[in-house]
Amino acid sequence: MKVQFAPANLPLKRRLQTAAVLQWVFSFLCLAQICIALFFILLFTRFWLVSVLYAVWWYIDYDTPSRGGRKIPFLCSLAIWDYMRDYFPIKLVKTADLDPRQNYIMGFHPHGILVAGAFTNFCTGATGFGSLFPGLRAYLLMLPLWFRAPFFRDYIMCAGLVPSDKDSASYLLRQKEGGNAVVIAVGGAPEALDARPGAYFVLLANKKGFIKLAMEHGAHLVPVYSFGENEVFDQVDNPKGTWLRMIQDRLQSIMGISLPLFHARGVFQYSFGFLPYRKPINTVVGKPIHVEKREKVSADDLDALHQLYMEELSKLFEEHKSNYGVPEDTHLIFI
């Protein structure tokens, strides 16, 4: 394979964009493991007190992730996120107003490999979520596993990440003053195993937990489709039934996280590596679906609202696909 190296005379701005994305990919793939190792290594050094004191703090602070976390607006507005936004670039598109007196569940589709669009749009201020939807606070749900990593849990909470369990989401949706937008990558880890360029399907046909959660709390539903989310990484072929896919599915069922074998470009060359391609991501936020609060959710009502949500997501995709290079004969497929 012939390696295509990056030009030596690239402007500083592009180098800073690459550096911003590099630290994000590193944090996503490696930082949790490094934090866990550091916690235990320190115990056997003269700095053992650091880990002991952190363990005490962790015990005291244990419930914070499931109670809204600890989002720090200053850190979310750092210039590094602007560079990350411009690397792709990433854009947040508003189609309707959202009442800040209401709570919302935003269904984010598709998951992609590393949910670059979801993180940049809803965990940072780089794409203007706060100005587009004044009065709303976005919280992106992430696998609870990551909140069990010392030090790392505090880092991700700063960005507004909270565990993707019912208790964490319910805490935010119970707030009577409203203004909370819980963002759920509905397809989750299993959907990441099918994320590749040209894939226009979402794992949603049997995903009804977030619909039931919305009905129990009277939170309005907002479909979100991120055009380009699947385009920024390639993935090793792993069709269902192959040995690779069976291993991936098995590991996902055991650990709760998927392990897609993805690749794209490197830091100093464009031929291979784990940095995403510079391809645009346009995240379109649809209009809200009004949901009435119900103490008891019947199966028929749940199915009806789930069907309505799929119809609204499909409509959102159809209305905007031509703006982002999706062929007219391509339609969203629910699996």
Automatic annotation (TrEMBL):
One of its GO terms (cellular component) is endoplasmic reticulum membrane. It is found in: Endoplasmic reticulum membrane. The keyword Acyltransferase applies. Its main location: endoplasmic reticulum. Keywords: Acyltransferase, Endoplasmic reticulum, Lipid biosynthesis, Lipid metabolism, Membrane, Transferase, Transmembrane, Transmembrane helix. One of its GO terms (biological process) is lipid metabolic process. InterPro entries: DAGAT (IPR007130). Its EC number is 2.3.1.-. The chain crosses the membrane at residues 21-41. GO terms for molecular function: acyltransferase activity. The keyword Protein transport does not apply. SUPFAM superfamilies: Glycerol-3-phosphate (1)-acyltransferase. It is a multi-pass membrane protein. PANTHER family: 2-ACYLGLYCEROL O-ACYLTRANSFERASE 2, DIACYLGLYCEROL O-ACYLTRANSFERASE. Belongs to the diacylglycerol acyltransferase family. This is Acyltransferase.
